[in-house]
Design brief:
By secondary structure, the chain is of the alpha/beta class. The protein folds into 2 domains: 6-200, Alpha-Beta Complex (2-enoyl-CoA Hydratase, Chain A, domain 1); 204-249, Lyase 2-enoyl-coa Hydratase, Chain  A, domain 2 (Orthogonal Bundle). It has helices at residues 30-45, 76-94, 111-118, 145-153, 155-164, 170-175, 188-200, 204-215, 221-235, 239-249; strands at 6-11, 14-19, 51-56, 61-63, 100-104, 107-109, 121-125, 129-131, 168-169, 181-183. The protein has a 6-stranded mixed beta sheet, with helices on both faces. A 4-stranded mixed beta sheet has the order 4-6-8-9. Strand 2 (14-19), helix 1 (30-45) and strand 3 (51-56) form a beta-alpha-beta unit. Helix 1 (30-45) packs parallel to helix 2 (76-94) and helix 8 (204-215) packs antiparallel against helix 9 (221-235). The mean pLDDT is 97. The structure holds coenzyme A. The site of coenzyme A (COA) has 15 residues, from strand 6. Coenzyme A (COA) binds at residues 24-25, 27, 64-69, 107, 109-110, 133-134, 137.
């Protein structure tokens, strides 16, 4: 895959996507947003890819937000369209049928925090910072922050983060459940690979079903339980389920094929 503002690398079954505008702290301009859209559309259907890591180029920032230089010329309608475009791309990431892990290597502010929230798991370096500083610019988060942050850390802490705009450290992010792991900066990518591998080694269809069922927890419990039972049933139609159960009974390692 060839992009202007993204770097793409494969490590076995893991795709590593790097947002590559370090001179602008990887701020999300139109090109980055469009390229993320195209990249994740391809990755969703690429059967050789079982997990994705997304990170930022350089040692300073994961993503320092939407590109603020685009804001001054936007009309109200432009701004709505701008938010919807970003939301569409981040929802595509959230709906990926394979695990997407954010390796947060520095500032994750505004759209950067929202991008990390759209990923399924977050691994942060010790010097990462997470925040939604938009109200300091006279706007609010527009790429899903007001919806996903409360769902991940609870409404009280999310409200404080969004209304004060004050960033939190990696350590605090871990305490509030915003990140799953914290690692030294030099070990971040390996830590992200390790956590990704611990999922890609499992049955791919079961992983896709689990991700879908977990997403249903955004809605009413009764609906989520119906969907869970349906997806549980679907997994009994897979070869991988036969393989997983046989391997357990035969005391050997399963070989999943994603079928
Ligand atoms: N949009 C556009 N450009 C951005 C940006 C953003 N969100 N964040 C950083 N940049 C650019 C800066 O303008 C600067 O460009 P320049 O060298 O051409 O002037 C470059 O990235 C480096 O940033 P700088 O501010 O000089 O680095 P710093 O170390 O002093 O500060 C931050 C780092 C992250 C604290 C600061 O860049 C910042 O507050 N960024 C905006 C965060 C934000 O409000 N995001 C939400 C947007 S809705």
């Amino acid at each position: 895959m060839n992009f202007e503002s993204l770097l793409f690398e494969a490590d076995g079954e893991i795709a590593i996507v790097t947002i590559n505008r370090p001179e602008k702290l990887n701020a999300l301009n139109e090109t980055v947003i469009s390229e993320l859209d195209a990249c994740f559309e391809d990755l969703a259907s690429d059967e050789s890819v079982r997990g994705v890591i997304i990170t930022g180029a350089g040692s300073k920032a994961f993503v320092a937000g939407a590109d603020i230089s685009q804001f001054p010329t936007l009309t109200r309608d432009d701004a709505v369209a701008f938010a919807k475009k970003g939301q569409h791309v981040f929802s595509r990431i959230e709906k990926m049928p394979k695990p997407v892990v954010a390796a947060v290597n520095g500032f994750a502010l505004g759209g950067g925090c929202e991008l990390a929230l759209a990923c399924h798991l977050r691994v942060a370096s010790t010097h990462a910072q997470f925040g939604q500083p938009e109200v300091g610019l006279g706007v609010i988060p527009g790429y899903g922050g007001t919806q996903r942050l409360p769902r991940v850390v609870g409404r009280g802490i999310a409200t404080e983060m969004i209304l004060t705009g004050k960033p939190v450290s990696a350590e605090r992010a871990y305490e509030i459940g915003l990140v799953n792991r914290v690692s030294e900066p030099e070990d971040l990518l390996e830590a992200a690979k390790q956590v990704t591998r611990s999922m890609t080694s499992k049955a791919p269809i079961a992983i896709a079903h689990a991700l879908k069922a977990i997403r249903e927890s955004d809605g009413p419990l009764a609906d989520g339980l119906i969907e869970e039972a349906r997806l549980f049933g679907d997994s009994f139609d897979t070869e991988d389920m036969q393989e997983g159960v046989s391997a357990f009974l035969e005391r050997r390692k399963p070989e999943f094929r994603g079928r």
